[in-house]
Amino acid sequence: MTSPYGFKGRAAVVTGATRGIGLAVARALTEAGARVCVTARDAEEVRRTAAELGGAGLPGDVADPAHLKSLAEFCVRELGRLDIVVNNAATNQPYGPLMDADPLVWRTAFTVNVEAPLRLTQHAWHAWMRDHGGTVVNICTEGAEHVGPHIGAYGTSKAALLHLTRQLAGELAPKVRVNSVSPGLIRTELARFVWEPAEEQIAAGLPLSRIGEPDDVARAVSWLASDAAQWVTGADLVVDGGTRVRSAYHLPGA
Predict the structure, then answer these.
(1) Distance CA 205, CA 72 (A)
(2) Which domains, and CATH codes, for the chain?
(3) How far is CA 163 from CA 49, 167, 168, 170, in A?
(4) Exposed e or buried b for every residue in 125-156, given b needs 16+ CB within 10 A?
(5) Are 176 and 129 in contact (CB under 8 A)?
């Protein structure tokens, strides 16, 4: 994927960056000239991805506050700066009715999906962005503003992340822009249980006639992180193939 945006001389950190959307984002930023620091829990995958991208890598769990502090400091130390933060790491557990949700797993969902983005942004702010500026992009979901079966914990935590995005955008301006990207159904391992059994049926019901690919999200992140979006903050860019407008979509032959 060739990006029209130039990030030469800038450094980025991407969480959950060894597969799916995170890997696509890390690649897109690298191809556009940024040096990228990747993180994920699997140390070997982090090493491999960092080597592939010619960047840096620090394995760890975003649920661990100490890791997030180390990550920001590591990026500044290894890459010399920290201009872009992409909070992508997430969990979709507990999956199922909320009346059956384990409170400890529910708490973990908020730790990973909401608290970790806040903590990493705090550390990036203190380590670099307070003095030099920067941009933060949070990966949310188009489902954050509506409800659905079995995804109550995920949707609720992502709704909180959406609000956090707007709150931080107000608090950190004008030095730092904070935005989010809300994907629809994307071909990732995290969502495989949704798309794999009925991909053709799902695609047929979307105005753009296919489910999303990680690169679709990466292009949106690249734009928001770039100077092309320098007057955009507190925004949520929905990348969903028309999911929200499909009620007006007239199926061919219908």
Answers:
(1) 42
(2) 11-248 (3.40.50.720)
(3) 31, 6, 9, 11
(4) bebbbeeeebbbbbbbbbbbeeeeeebbbbbb
(5) yes
d(CA 18, CA 40): 7
Phi and psi for 180 in degrees, rounded to 5? -135, 155
HSE-up (13 A, CA, CB side) for residue 160: 15
- Greater pLDDT, 189 or 184: 184
Distance CA 113, CA 141 (A): 11
pLDDT in tens, 27-80: 999 999 999 999 999 999 999 999 999 999 999 999 999 999 999 999 999 999
Q: For this structure, is 5 an active site residue?
A: no
Catalytic residue among 5, 95, 154, 249: 154
- How far is the C-alpha of 37 from the C-alpha of 186, rounded, in Å? 23
Tokens describing residue 250: 């007239």
CA neighbor of 137 nearest in space, from 241, 14, 1, 3: 14
pTM: 0.94
Quote the tokens at residue 243: 């999911």
Question: CA torsion, points 225, 228, 232, 236, in degrees to nearest 10?
Answer: -60
For residue 33, give every residue at least 6 positions away whose Cβ sits within 8 Å of its Cβ, in sequence order, or none.
Answer: 6, 7, 8, 9, 10
Which stretch of DSSP H or E encloses residue 178?
A: strand 176-183
Neighbour count for residue 67 (Cβ, 10 Å): 20
Look at strands 84-87 and 134-139 and give their pairing. parallel
Give exposure, 75-106, as e/b (b: 16+ Cβ within 10 Å): bbeebebbbbbbbbbbbbebbeeeeebeeeeb
